[in-house]
Amino acid sequence: MGRARTIARRSFLIGSAAIAGGVAFGAYFVTRPTPNPLLDGLAEGEAALTPFVKITPDGITLIVPRADVGQGIASTQAMLIAEELDIDPGMATLDPGQPHRAYFNGTVAADGLSFPGWDKGFVAETVRDLMMNVARLSGSQFTGGSSSTADLHETLRRAGATARETLKAAAAARTRLPISDLRTEEGHVVLPDGGRIAYTDLAADAAVIAPVTDVALRPASEWTRLGKPYQRLDIVAKSTGTQAYGIDVVLPGMLYATVRANPGRGGGLADYSADAALAMQGVQSVVEVNEGLAVIANNTWFAFQAAQALEIDWLPPDYPASSAEMWQALSDAHADEFRNSRLRDEGDVERALNRATKIESEYRTPFLAHAALEPLSATVLVEKNRVTIWTATQVPHVVRDAAAEVTGIDAANVILHALPAGGSFGRRLDHDYVVQAIQIAASMPGTPIKTTWSREEDMSHDFPRPLHMARGRGTVEDGRVVAFDLDTISPSLVASWFGRVFIVPPGPDAMLVWGAFDQPYAIPNYRVTGYAAPPLVPVGSWRSPGACSNSFFHESFLSELIHAAGADPLEERLRLIDHADSRRVLEAVGEMASWSGADIGPRRGRGVAFAYTHGVPVAEVIDVTLTEQGIRIDEVWIAADCGTVFDPVNAEAQLTGAAVYGLGHAMNCELTYENHAVQQTNFDAFEGMRLHHTPRFHTQLLGLAERVRGIGEPATAPAAPALADAIFAATGRRLREMPFNKFVDFA
Amino acid sequence: MDLTINGTSHTVDLPDDMPLLWALRDGLNITSVKYGCGIAQCGACTVHIDGEAVRSCQVALADVWGEITTIEGLGTPDALHVIQAAWIEHQVAQCGYCQSGQMMQAADLLERNPEPSDEDIDAAMSGNLCRCGTYPRIRAAVHAAASAMREA
Ligand code: FES
Ligand code: FES
Q1: In A333-467, where do the E strands start and end?
Q2: Is B43 on the interface with A (CB under 8 A)?
Q3: What are the structural domains of chain A?
Q4: What ipTM did this prediction achieve?
Q5: Which residues form a coiled coil (chain B) (predicted)?
Q6: What domains does chain B contain, in order, with CATH numbers?
Q7: Does any CB of chain A come closer than 8 Å to the CB of residue B20?
Q8: Which residues partner with A95 through β-bridges?
Q9: Is A683 close to B41, i.e. CB distance below 8 A?
């Protein structure tokens, strides 16, 4: 406890010139033309080898560029480096670094393709490689898509190994001992006579020798940290109130601001009067920002009060005014002219549908807010030729470029202190709140200003999960599912989000059908068609985008067909599944739950669902009881396979947390619109799961899949369909629309 | 106005109707007390007044009736409270944003009920939202803290 651990500031990077003998290690300095951000500011003669490990006489700093939004990735990144570097990561300083293309995320780009993750064929793999390179060249430093571990696990271990071997070479040169006689341990090179040289003592030597790059990674059997239960490096801070989040930044002379934006997103400002607001206590000024107005005051509370006192005439946005009209727009988009993709088309679906009695169903999922518990916030200081930003973001490179664009100050002079987030779930893939904070700070150069959105702003100006609907048609014969045809209809998330942060990529929107087209079932006649409805409100990635709705449609409709066939929901899935990793998780969850059918007694029911998302197969079984007060969720079993698990305690937390997120929103959350505005503006109307709803969880990560994948999102998607399936087993009622509390009560 | 926080007295020059939450956060830079909803729906702002868990977003400064305890008053990294030690042992926190409020609520519960059942924990803690879904570990940590406190 009480270990020396801090999130370093920019001073480490630009101030390192003053530190004699600094050295920075990483994986890319030879193989990649990517410039090393740690090079800037090193003095003559110092070697900065690359982006992830920096050793100076004062200590060891690990650069952990993926944003920690609660998923624990800062720790995991540090552990991956530490395993090869032979240090106690608790003694190192963790620094998210500055946005830089050396920290590009190739996996997230490769995953966004029109190939199912389990397709390891030549074409799919070639295009994935291509996308990795596109990401590298564009320097996209996203944290998202459960991609961090998958993308970085080798890179970070290699960075640790390179640093270790170079330090050994430096020690060998100094002691004139053969390198093969040296070993490393807890931040030291150990000599044959037991003498020890601290890495920090070797920094200057290591800086001037050729780095050792030809290093083999240690096999899992030799790991001493990875794969074992360990404490998250932030756990003490987060259990003592000492973790500072973006919203907690305190600077001398700081002012506080808030925003009041048009409740109809994207409508403009017709006219306003700030007189009443300006007359209120503590208020300094009112400024125009993107989407509305901001109040600057000397306490956030004063700003909140004054924002309510602004008199504003808003202009209407260009989307339909009500939820009813939006549903109609989706329904109308179920037409050939809106057809966007047909990435799954096997057998002869039309013929099969005409041969037997068709089963047809329609499903709906609502808009949903991300509603991380920490409301959006950013602190910005604009100076003559410099912008400094303190915030939590999943897109640091986008924030940097936006700051340059808004202020006209060179991007090289934008300093970003990337701080941990109090949740995100995809919300911080957008940077609208940071842009407003920059605009606010730019109105008072020299004064740091913290902008905090009220919960009401946060809920009503989210980029929500899109409204989504699906229509299924299918047939069964002889106790088997024979035809499955799913049309899924939603505004394009890719067009909306990429349009805001990058450019809209050409080709079909695979996210529109994620969780449906890419499921590893071998149904003889199997088709999934995506329809891109016209844009409604601007939408965003919500934990398991696409799949968080599509899996509900796909698995629910599959369950309906299986029920019609008179087959067992787990057995028939096992018969249809055509992918070894996926079969194993279904078998595992069946064993864990002692599956013997959906009927588990009077007023009780058991449901199952499977989803393959983010390259991870997940199966969930849920038991419910119909009590006097309503449905109670009793038990949840989850089996998943993300390949090698580096951080088991945290991985378990991600499985259960993702399932809680999926279940809570399926139970009782939706955003609806009236007069263009969100109707649910706080947690009284958007509750999610609370402790008294929480079931017992039983989880298993099989660790058998060949590829390492991330586990932050995959357990979200199958949670809702498993719950709906259990409710059907208990009540005979098939719920085809979220939230379920429109139709049943929850205890 | 004078406030006693974790045994230390502070003077703030802020209006009577300002919620205690904002006096603590922006007036006194005590940012461990979190803003989540402002309407008593999330529990992130929970502190103790005279040992009782209250939502600081709902208590006007003029109405503060006693000594305030924040999470720092419960324990520190070098001198952990039993509840904090249990939270660490069970690795409860994900983003951690809700957890100061969760622990302050748990402290209130265990003060009144040293051996709570699952139902007691549900009843006492359901006002504290955790958007990351750490609930199973919260339950386990409350039980662990309860038994550690009984043994102490
Ligand atoms: S901020 Fe006080 S209960 Fe949510
Ligand atoms: S740990 Fe994130 S809200 Fe509870």
Answers
A1: 339-346, 359-365, 377-383, 386-391, 414-418, 449-452
A2: no
A3: 12-105+140-234 (3.30.365.10), 246-317+376-452 (3.30.365.10), 323-369+463-742 (3.30.365.10)
A4: 0.98
A5: none
A6: 2-73 (3.10.20.30), 75-151 (1.10.150.120)
A7: no
A8: A63
A9: yes
